[in-house]
Design brief:
Purple Acid Phosphatase, chain A, domain 2, 10 helices, five-stranded mixed sheet, alpha/beta, seven-stranded mixed sheet, globular, about 280 residues
Length: about 280
C-alpha cells in the first residue's frame, strides 16, 4: 500500500504543478526569450535514452535550461510476462518535473489520450494499454486501480503544446490536412475533460495527425504566430527528419534516437534546427 500511495501522491503533485504553472497559458506553455531548450521526441519507455537525455541536460548545473519530454509510456522493458514497465520511467520523469517545476515540461501525446480514454493503441503488434495495465497489476497488486486512475489524472493535466519566444512550436503532432481548415483552436485555451480526447475532437486531432503538406503547415504556422514546428508521433528510423517546409519530426525511442538543443534567444530556420540535432548515442552518461 505504501508504494502505491507514493505513486499516487507523485502523480497528484505533478498534476497540481501542471495546472498551476505560471508560464502556462491555457494548454500552451510559453517559454522565455533566453536560455537553452532541449526537445526530445517519443521516448516510449527507453531507459538508456532517458539517462542520456538527463545527462546531456544536466539541469542542476545548467539553471537556464528547459527540457521537454513527450510520449513516455508504452514500450521499453517488460516484466517477463508481457507487462509494460514504462510507468517506471514516467515516475522518474515526474520526480524530475517536481524537482525542476519551471524547467521540465511534458506535453500530451496520442498514447496519453489512448490511456485516458481507455482506447486501443497498437505498438509493434501489441495492444499497449493491456500491456501497461498488466505491468501495473503485477507491480501494485490490489492497489493497481487507484494508481492507474492517478496516472490518467496526471496525463489529463498535461499541456498540449509549447511555444517559444523565438517562434518555435512543439507539440506531439498537428491535425491532418483534411482537418486543418475547420480545426477549433479554442482547444488550446480549454480545460480538458477525458471526453475531449475522443476522436475526432480537436485534442485528438492535435495528437494523432500525420503527413502534413507544406500548404497546411504554413497555414497553421501563420495562425499560431510561429515560424517552425518540432513534432513527434511519426516513426523515424534515423531519429529525425525534415517533414516539410517548416517542420521537423523527432524520436528518442531507439538506438538512433535524437534530441534538439537550441538557444531560445536566437531565430532559427528549419535548416538551422536540423543543425541542432544531437544523436543520443553520442552522449556519454
Amino acid at each position: 500500500m505504501a508504494q502505491a500511495q507514493q505513486a499516487i501522491d507523485l502523480c497528484n503533485k505533478a498534476a497540481e504543478l501542471n495546472y498551476s504553472q505560471e508560464i502556462r497559458n491555457g494548454n500552451v506553455i510559453e517559454l522565455p526569450a533566453e536560455g537553452t531548450l532541449i526537445v526530445t521526441g517519443d521516448l516510449h519507455g527507453h531507459r538508456r535514452n532517458f539517462e542520456r537525455i538527463t545527462a546531456y541536460a544536466d539541469l542542476i548545473n545548467n539553471p537556464d535550461t528547459h527540457l521537454v519530454f513527450q510520449e513516455i509510456l508504452h514500450g521499453g522493458a517488460d516484466d517477463g510476462q508481457g507487462g509494460c514497465l514504462s510507468f517506471e520511467i514516467l515516475f522518474d520523469i515526474l520526480k524530475l518535473r517536481i524537482q525542476f517545476p519551471d524547467r521540465v515540461h511534458i506535453i500530451m501525446g496520442n498514447h496519453d489520450t489512448a490511456i485516458i480514454t481507455d482506447s486501443d493503441v497498437l505498438k509493434a503488434g501489441r495492444e499497449m494499454n493491456i500491456a501497461l495495465k498488466s505491468g501495473l497489476k503485477k507491480h501494485f497488486g490490489d492497489y493497481f486501480e487507484p494508481v492507474n486512475e492517478a496516472i490518467k489524472e496526471y496525463l489529463l493535466s498535461q499541456p498540449l503544446a509549447i511555444k517559444t519566444d523565438n517562434k518555435i512550436w512543439i507539440s506531439h503532432s498537428l491535425p491532418a490536412d483534411r482537418f486543418v481548415d475547420d480545426f477549433d483552436y479554442d482547444v488550446l485555451d480549454a480545460i480538458l475533460m477525458p471526453d475531449d480526447l475522443l476522436r475526432p475532437l480537436p485534442a485528438y486531432l492535435l495528437t494523432w495527425g500525420r503527413k502534413h503538406s507544406d500548404e497546411k503547415l504554413e497555414q497553421m504556422a501563420k495562425k499560431l504566430g510561429i515560424d517552425n514546428f518540432i513534432l513527434g508521433h511519426q516513426k523515424q528510423d534515423t531519429g529525425v527528419s525534415r517533414a516539410g517546409i517548416n517542420a521537423i519530426i523527432l524520436t528518442s525511442e531507439h538506438n538512433h534516437g535524437c534530441l534538439i538543443a537550441l538557444d531560445m534567444s536566437k531565430s532559427y530556420s528549419v535548416e538551422d534546427l536540423m543543425d541542432c540535432v544531437v544523436p543520443l548515442a553520442s552522449i556519454v552518461s
